[in-house]
Amino acid sequence: MDKLYSEIFAGHDPAVLEIWRKATVGIAGAGGLGSNIAVALTRAGIGKLIITDHDIVSNSNLTRQQFFLKQVGLPKVSALKDNLRQISPYTDVSVYNVSVSPVNLESLFKQADILIEAFDDAGEKQMLIETWQTLYPARYIIAASGIAGIGKNELIRIERSGTLFIVGDPGAELQPGVNPVSARVAVVANMQANLCLELLLEKGQD
Amino acid sequence: MAGIVVNGRPIEWEEGMTVQRVLDRMNYSWRMLVIKVNGTLVRKEAWSSTLVPPGAEVSVFHLLSGG
């Protein structure tokens, strides 16, 4: 690795950085959750990210998603890839401007050591969790459920069953027409990213 | 009396008890659920046909939109 890499990651524990550099993480969705997760994992030095989203950046996304005004109208995955490259060019980012389905999930994410669910719609969350857990019961999936509201940090928690983790406030249902608020969606996103980094280290030390 | 445990709560087991019957017994009417029986995921298409054995541990996760 070159001088810039050494300087960017000068403050990382070298043994930890090496585990993260060799990891591949899948992120299904590049909205409020996925864009924040991708930023956190790029700053951590994850070697490869696979990110999918079928949507384009809109003005109303700017309240909580990691995009800029000049990117409105671009596919979210292209805009996010550009932004991640501005943070660190050392994360290899593969993006797919598609909707994930039971048919294409395996071909999109088969390389992922861990999959992070970052969809909006509960039905899509269910589809992703069911399909991934059926295909790869031994591989971790970190989902999110319950990001609405303001404050109430203490109600955000992690539920677990085996390799499945679900992060969020189980009582925080979105009201129609009201978008999530930046801070709380970013808290959940960063808890997903933080858990992912922790699980990679546990795997790396096996 | 044989029993099962659903989200940490013990309930009575019944002969022929399916995953769907467990949901009905628990009054879980939300459709966006993820369900595991003894650690194995049961897809929603199989809720009505999958039997829950006595002593089973059932985890039911509610999924809310937003992301």
In words, what does this structure look like?
- The complex is a heterodimer of chains A (206) and B (67).
- With 206 residues, chain A is α/β, with parallel strands linked by helices.
- Chain A is built from seven helices and seven strands, in the order ααβαβαβαβαβββα.
- Chain A starts with a helix and ends with a helix.
- The model of chain A has no long low-confidence stretch (mean pLDDT 97).
- The mean pLDDT of chain B is 96.
- Chain B has one domain (3-62): Roll (Ubiquitin-like (UB roll)), CATH 3.10.20.30.
- In chain B, strand 3 and strand 4 (40-42) form a beta hairpin.
- By secondary structure, chain B is mostly beta strands.
- Chain B is globular and about 45 Å long.
- The chains are: A alpha/beta (206), B mainly beta (67).
- The interface between A and B is medium-sized, with 36 and 17 residues.
Short description, anyone?
The complex is a heterodimer of chains A (about 210) and B (about 70). Helix content of chain A is about 40%, strand content about 15%.
Count of distinct structural domains of chain B? 1
Unreliable runs of chain B, pLDDT <50, ≥5 residues?
none
Major pleated sheet of chain A:
7 strands, mixed
Q: Looking at this structure, what is the CATH superfamily of chain B?
A: Beta-grasp domain
Identify the CATH class of chain B.
Alpha Beta
The shape of chain B, in one word, is: globular
Helix count from the secondary structure assignment of chain A: 7
First and last CA, distance of chain A? 25 Å
Q: Which range best describes the helical content of chain B: under 10%, 10-25%, 25-40%, 40-55%, 55-70% or over 70%?
A: 10-25%
**Total helical elements of chain B:** 1
CATH-assigned homologous superfamily of chain A? NAD(P)-binding Rossmann-like Domain
User: What is the alpha-carbon Rg of chain A in Å?
Assistant: 16 Å
| Number of separate strands of chain A | 7
Structural class of chain B: mainly beta
Main beta-sheet strand count, sense and barrel state of chain B:
5 strands, mixed
Q: How far is the first residue's CA from the last residue's CA of chain B?
A: 43 Å
**Interface with most residues:** A-B, 36 and 17 residues
CATH topology of chain B: the name is Ubiquitin-like (UB roll)
Total domain units of chain A: 1
Output the radius of gyration of chain B: 12 Å
Query: Structural class given helices, strands, pairing of chain A?
Result: alpha/beta
